[in-house]
Automatic annotation (TrEMBL):
Alphabetical keyword list: Hydrolase
Domain AB hydrolase-1 positions: 19-256
MF-aspect GO terms: hydrolase activity
Protein name: Pimeloyl-ACP methyl ester carboxylesterase
Organism per entry: Phycicoccus duodecadis
Pfam family membership, one: Abhydrolase_1
Spans through the membrane: none
Length: 277
C-alpha cells in the first residue's frame, strides 16, 4: 500500500468566488503567480479564491526520492481536496506545472472544472538541455562560503538579471547556513538521463482523455508549443482552444500579464465549480 502524498505548501489569495489553483514551472514557486492571483481576487478579495501551490521538490514543499508526474499530480490532488473538500477548481499550470495540470485532469477529473495550460505541450522535449546551464550555475555556487544574499548574487554566474533573480529565489538562509529550496540533486540526476529525462518527458497514461474546457496559452515568441502539437493536445483534451499571445515568450504571465489576467477572468466567469461527483 503506497503512502498518502505529503501535504504541499500553499499560499491563499482571496476570500470568496470560484476556486483557482496555480502550478508553477521548474525552479519556480507558487508565489510567482501572486500578482495574477491578486488581480483576479480584486481589491475586496471576492473575485476568486486562489491557491498558489509549491510543487513537490520546490519552494517549501517536501522533496521526492524520484520524479514522477503521476506522483506530483496525486500530491496536488490531495492538496486541493484538503483545501476545499468536494469542490472543483480552475487549474492553471505553466511549463512543468502545465504538464502536472494535464496529468491532474486526466487522473483526477472530478477535481477540475476547467484547465489553463501555459506554454507547454503533452509531449517529450528530449532532454533538459535548456536547463543544464542553470543547473550547473546553481551547483557551482559555494554555499558554505556565502556571507550575504548580495554575496550570492555577486558570485552567481548567470548574466541575465531576470533569470538570476528567478533562480536565486530558491536560495534559503537559516542562520549562517545557505541551502537550495529546490531539490537540485533530483533535477540534476534527471538531467543526467539525457533523452530519457522524466521531467522533459510526458507520461503514458494509456487510453485516457478529459472532455472539460481547456485554454492553451502559448507565447507567440516561444517554441514550446508548435502547430504540429495540436493533434496530441486535442486527442487528450478534445475541447482545447489554443491562444497564441503576441509579444510573449515562454514566461507568458510575465511577458503579458494583462492578457493572462483577462483570459483567466473569462475562464472563471465561464466555470461553475460545484460539488465533485
Amino acid at each position: 500500500m503506497s503512502a498518502a502524498p505529503a501535504a504541499l505548501h500553499t499560499l491563499a489569495v482571496g476570500t470568496d468566488g470560484p476556486r483557482i489553483a496555480f502550478l508553477h514551472g521548474l525552479f519556480g514557486q507558487g508565489r510567482n503567480w501572486t500578482q495574477v492571483a491578486k488581480a483576479l481576487a480584486g481589491p475586496d478579495g471576492t473575485g476568486a479564491r486562489a491557491l498558489l501551490v509549491d510543487l513537490p521538490d520546490h519552494g517549501r514543499s517536501p522533496w521526492s526520492a524520484e520524479f514522477s508526474y503521476e506522483a506530483y499530480a496525486d500530491a496536488v490532488a490531495a492538496t486541493l481536496e484538503a483545501a476545499a473538500p468536494g469542490e472543483q477548481w480552475v487549474v492553471v499550470g505553466h511549463s512543468l506545472g502545465g504538464k502536472v495540470s494535464m496529468v491532474l485532469a486526466l487522473t483526477h477529473p472530478e477535481l477540475v472544472a476547467s484547465l489553463v495550460v501555459v506554454d507547454i505541450a503533452p509531449k517529450g522535449y528530449g532532454s533538459l538541455d535548456r536547463f543544464t546551464g542553470y543547473i550547473g550555475e546553481m551547483r557551482a555556487l559555494p554555499l558554505a562560503e556565502l556571507t550575504s544574499r548580495a554575496d550570492a548574487e555577486a558570485r552567481f554566474a548567470e548574466p541575465d538579471r531576470a533569470v538570476k533573480a528567478f533562480l536565486l529565489q530558491n536560495l534559503r538562509r537559516s542562520g549562517t547556513d545557505w541551502s537550495w529550496q529546490a531539490n537540485l540533486d533530483l533535477v540534476h540526476g534527471d538531467a543526467e538521463r539525457g533523452p530519457a529525462s522524466l521531467i522533459a518527458g510526458f507520461p503514458d497514461l494509456g487510453e485516457v482523455s478529459w472532455d472539460g474546457p481547456v485554454v492553451w496559452l502559448a507565447g507567440a515568441e516561444s517554441e514550446y508549443v508548435r502547430d504540429d502539437d495540436v493533434p496530441a493536445m486535442r486527442a487528450l483534451f478534445p475541447r482545447t482552444r489554443l491562444v497564441r499571445v503576441r509579444g510573449a515568450a515562454h514566461w507568458v504571465h510575465t511577458d503579458a500579464p494583462e492578457v493572462v489576467v483577462e483570459t483567466l477572468r473569462r475562464v472563471l466567469r465561464a466555470a461553475d465549480p460545484g460539488p465533485a461527483a
